[in-house]
């Protein structure tokens, strides 16, 4: 008969941690361990206190929390029988520093544990598994070094992705500005030539003044003209081309698209004809005004292209925050928008981006460059999950004293058995060479440890969402 407070050998064997031990080893555990019941709501271990006991959950539900600033942030909630926590590193060599609990554990309902002292747990590990002990010590040190090295690599990869994305996005407006500048040079030369032809035609000064005034009127009309649909523009080009052909305008069918794009119609051409009384000057006048229209359109193209370049550079600066303090009060929408701009080439045209922003949200204290790394990791994963087609929804809202950012995709979802592991370091569902398994781990540490917030995954087929909560209060200094 088993003594009260103890577990029988057969019961210990049902725990996955002990299932491969010998009868002799199980008997030793049964003799040295004790069971303990903790009532719902009671604290089992306290973060920072000496790590004196090793716990194995027998029944109930527990929550592990880490202290971040003034808040207790939940990191794990589980009811899985056999999970262990507490003095989990008691087997490591004593380096003269007392080992302490790395988190607090609270029973959420009445919970039972099998408990070993840290001293007994460390002794059994050193005696029973000497080779495993050396491996675990090496693994602990190796993981620290590996995480540091891959974390640095991750930052370099993010910088490379930023550079590639920026170059990709800058290429189109830069090329457009270059093409428009070359065309503009030709049109300005043509205008000078046509102006010389008009002057050589001995146009009366008052008539030339009228033409210049007419040119300004045409430019103003073009600026205010409504945008035509493709079908309307095609019909307008046909009307204008026919008119120019009837009035012996050379190259009329080449000029018609310019006038149509400028929003001009037949009434405007009749007005130009009425202003040009001298015979033979209508052709030069039409071409002169056409050059003026095209010049305005090219300058608008250059303005739009250079404005796009300026906007991209601004987004890159906001994304990297190279010119700002590391920690500041920020509007989360700025970082989200700049990240979407930087990842536009990855998102592609097959993914629809939907923004549901609450613009009344207050600013939050944060390290913006680090948060942008979080947005990058989540959005990149979402785009890969959708394989180039679907909807990416970025939503912001307020919940109590937190600003919440939800990033969702319409991909296949994350299977239930993998959801609890997505934030584990080195865990990845991607093919070899496509992921390090650290993106979401880094994101978790940035949000939880660095900002005192929380990040959770809610997933089902067609609706996967990473929900990031950021406190509105100042976090503790790091």
UniProtKB/TrEMBL annotation:
Catalytic activity: ATP + protein L-histidine = ADP + protein N-phospho-L-histidine
Positions of the Histidine kinase domain: 294-474
Domain Cyclic nucleotide-binding, first and last residues per copy: 17-125
InterPro entries registered for this protein in UniProt: cNMP-bd_CS (IPR018488), cNMP-bd_dom (IPR000595), cNMP-bd_dom_sf (IPR018490), HATPase_C_sf (IPR036890), HATPase_dom (IPR003594), His_kinase_dom (IPR005467), RmlC-like_jellyroll (IPR014710), Sig_transdc_His_kin-like_C (IPR004358)
GO biological process terms, semicolon-separated: phosphorelay signal transduction system
Pfam families membership: cNMP_binding (PF00027), HATPase_c (PF02518)
Enzyme nomenclature, EC number: 2.7.13.3
UniProt keyword list: Kinase, Transferase, Two-component regulatory system
GO molecular function ontology, one term from the record: protein histidine kinase activity
SUPFAM superfamilies membership: ATPase domain of HSP90 chaperone/DNA topoisomerase II/histidine kinase, cAMP-binding domain-like
Keyword Ubl conjugation: no
CDD domains: CAP_ED
First-tier enzyme category under EC: transferase
Keyword Kinase in annotation: yes
Gene3D superfamilies referenced in this protein's UniProt entry, alphabetically: 1.10.287.130, Histidine kinase-like ATPase, C-terminal domain, Jelly Rolls
Protein known as: histidine kinase
Species, as recorded: Actinoplanes digitatis
